[in-house]
TrEMBL record:
Organism: Xaviernesmea oryzae
Name of this protein: Magnesium chelatase family protein
Cross-referenced CDD domains: AAA
Any GO MF annotation of the entry: ATP binding
NCBIfam families xrefs: YifB family Mg chelatase-like AAA ATPase
PANTHER family, A to Z: COMPETENCE PROTEIN COMM, MAGNESIUM-CHELATASE SUBUNIT CHLI
Record-linked Pfam families: ChlI (PF13541), Mg_chelatase (PF01078), Mg_chelatase_C (PF13335)
Top-level taxon of origin: Bacteria
Family: Belongs to the Mg-chelatase subunits D/I family. ComM subfamily.
Length: 511
């Protein structure tokens, strides 16, 4: 007889339904798994046999065939252990065959018959709900799966025996409860930074509109410090964003203890990161740092030290908000709606442009270093600022600096204005100016006559690309939002243009 159990294979952050068919038939005692299994799935044979043995069930002296349908969809990961084991138990009559019909099953087996947590419990639960089914998953993944909705039937046993007893009615497994991770209260605070008022202002603008930011300055001026304080001024994730972000972290197996947090992701990959680490992919498709930073910040410190190919691979996600990875026989995509923040020195010795300093290798020093960042990538960065060395006066006798909580208040108010505006315009999924479409921003950021004249002059003189032109408008819109103004004025445009010019000035200084 053939027993059938429903499970999922992950493609991107979606769970595609997979039917596990187990047949026990006449033949030499053996177990075969077919249906494009990867190495982890193929090894499941050993774990299933050992776990059944440990649970007091002997393998039948017959031929066992396991088919994972659809046969042409690649199956990756260890979460197929449990559905295979349950299919086998149903085929042997150890659990009622119809007990599994209403469930999607995922889970990895230990050799002693206990269940180990698997990645992807949250998207699996959401997928199961979409099919009108419940979810059976390991106890350690239960808290995460419970986030998918209060109405979903979730059974999260510790072991195969507990699950079998549950189906026999001799033991009741209670539904797991969703858990939230307490946010650490001691985030680094902006008040720690002495001086750097214009850099702090730029950080606030970037946070308010979700704009990409590049900080250029000599060593020890506080660039890494500034970036580390960005999480303290960003608003928390909304409920919908929280679920999206958690799905990606769930697939990557990065939800510790299945607990979710409403803090915006802040990812800081090292500059030795490979393409697979940053964009995703590798032998087993996994989301990369760019996707793990979805709805949050991707901070690339020492920007030019990243490999140029890896940096250029960010161009497409920065524009489209998703990372697309081509595999041998299919393609997967992960959401990557990110705010890019980068920091760099102006040249290899780090001091180009500082008063009284001359680089050992002359202007080539800065030119070669900055050439590692391609023009198109630079074009995607809306706010470029110089972060000069802190003056002695600021260091020794600093004026009291504003605390992160105050800045966060202004950022939250500006974001609320943006959210309301886009909701009124019938685009409730756009939340920040940075994500606004070009047609909408032309409408919402239409400047007053003085601003228009300034924009026209600047666009001609600085030869903005079309993208650059729209990005200036977006930053100007954010500045007006921070100001609480409905119309973008000349003053907002002037500041927005100055943020774009800082990069151009750098290039001119080098030439
Ligand atoms: N504006 C500042 N206020 C207070 N302390 C500062 C400031 N700037 C730098 N520092 C001190 O210098 C240290 C180094 O700062 P940070 O790592 O941010 O420099 P950086 O600009 O990132 O340098 P690099 O280019 O070498 O990465 C900080 O840990 C802090 O002690
Ligand atoms: Mg640094």
């Amino acid at each position: 007889m053939v027993a059938r159990v429903g499970t999922v294979a992950f493609q991107g952050i979606e769970g595609v339904p997979v039917d596990v068919q187990v047949m026990v038939g006449p033949g030499k005692m053996n177990m075969h798994i077919v249906g494009l299994p990867d190495k982890a799935v193929a090894e499941s044979r050993e774990r299933v046999q050992a776990a059944l043995h440990a649970s007091g069930l002997a393998m039948p002296p017959k031929k066992v065939t396991v088919n994972l349908a659809p046969a042409d969809l690649p199956k990756e990961g260890s979460h197929f252990d449990l559905p295979i084991a349950l299919g086998l138990m149903a085929a042997l009559g150890a659990i009622p065959a119809d007990a599994l019909a209403d469930y999607v099953v995922i889970g990895e087996l230990n050799l002693d018959g206990t269940l180990a947590a698997v990645a992807g419990a949250l998207p699996a639960a959401i997928g199961a709900n979409g099919l009108g089914k419940g979810l059976i998953c390991p106890a350690d993944s239960g808290a995460e799966a419970a986030w998918a909705g209060a109405e979903i039937d979730i059974v999260a046993p510790r072991s195969l025996i507990a699950l079998a007893n549950h189906f026999r009615g001799t033991q009741v497994i209670s539904r797991p409860q969703p858990a939230i991770r307490a946010n650490p209260a001691n985030l680094p605070d902006l008040a720690d930074i002495k001086g750097q008022e214009s850099a702090k202002r730029a950080l606030e603008v970037a946070a308010a509109g979700g704009h990409n930011l590049l900080m250029v300055g000599p060593p020890g001026s506080g660039k890494s410090m500034l970036a580390a304080r960005l999480p303290s001024i960003l608003p928390p994730l909304s409920a919908a964003e929280l679920l999206e972000v958690s799905m990606i972290h769930s697939i990557a197996g990065q939800l510790s203890g299945g607990k979710l947090s409403d803090r915006r992701p802040y990812r800081t990959p090292h500059h030795s990161a490979t393409m697979a680490a940053l964009i995703g992919g590798g032998t087993r498709a996994k989301p990369g740092e760019a996707s793990l930073a979805h709805h949050g910040v991707l901070f690339l410190d020492e920007f030019p030290e990243f490999s140029p190919q890896v940096l250029d691979a960010l161009r497409q996600p920065l524009e489209s908000g998703e990372c697309v990875i081509a595999r041998a026989n299919h393609r997967v995509s992960y959401p990557a709606n990110i705010q890019l923040v980068a920091a760099m020195n102006p040249c290899r010795c780090g001091m180009a442009g500082e008063p009284g300093h001359s680089c050992a290798r002359g202007p080539r020093c800065a030119a070669d270093y900055q050439a590692r960042i391609s023009g198109p990538l630079m074009d995607r960065i809306d706010i470029r600022i110089d972060v000069p060395a802190v003056s002695a006066a600021d260091l020794i006798r600093p004026v009291p600096a504003e605390r992160s909580a105050d800045v966060a208040g202004r950022v939250a108010a500006a974001r609320e204005r943006q959210r309301e505006r886009f909701a009124r315009a019938g685009s409730p999924d756009i939340l920040t100016n940075a994500r606004c479409s070009t047609s909408l921003i032309e409408k919402f950021a239409e400047p007053d006559p003085g601003g228009l004249q300034l924009l026209r002059d600047a666009a001609e003189k600085l030869k903005f690309s079309a993208r650059g032109y729209h990005r200036v408008l977006k930053v100007a819109r954010t500045l007006a939002d921070l100001d609480g103004k409905d119309i973008v004025g000349r003053i907002h445009l002037a500041e927005a243009i100055s943020y774009r010019m800082a990069g151009e000035r750098l290039a001119v200084a080098v030439a």
